[in-house]
Amino acid sequence: MSMDRIEQWATTLRTEWPFRLRLRAWPVAITLLFLLCMASGLGVVVTTHMTRVQFAQLQQLEQEENQLQTEWGQLLLEEGAWSTPARIEQIATERLGMRIPDVHDVEVIRP
Fold this sequence. Notes:
This protein is mostly helical. The chain contains 3 helices and no strands. The chain has helices spanning 2-15, 25-82, 85-94.
């Protein structure tokens, strides 16, 4: 009797080669949907993390921009203080020995 069973098994094996997967549609669909939900959840987590990191970088860059704007304003004020006409005249007098010419030293040239 066992020989008959073996022959029957061998015949079945030959007729169904390659082995056919006999899966029902619902378990496969549910498994596929579960995997898709897990992938979607993981995508949400990764996106949220990336958004938070980029927002932190944005805040840091905005703070740096504010500091640079403040420094730029201070430099403009300093430039204005260094280039006043009174300061330029003082440096020309002290360092270069320049003076305002007298009225008698001025010559007017007419065309």
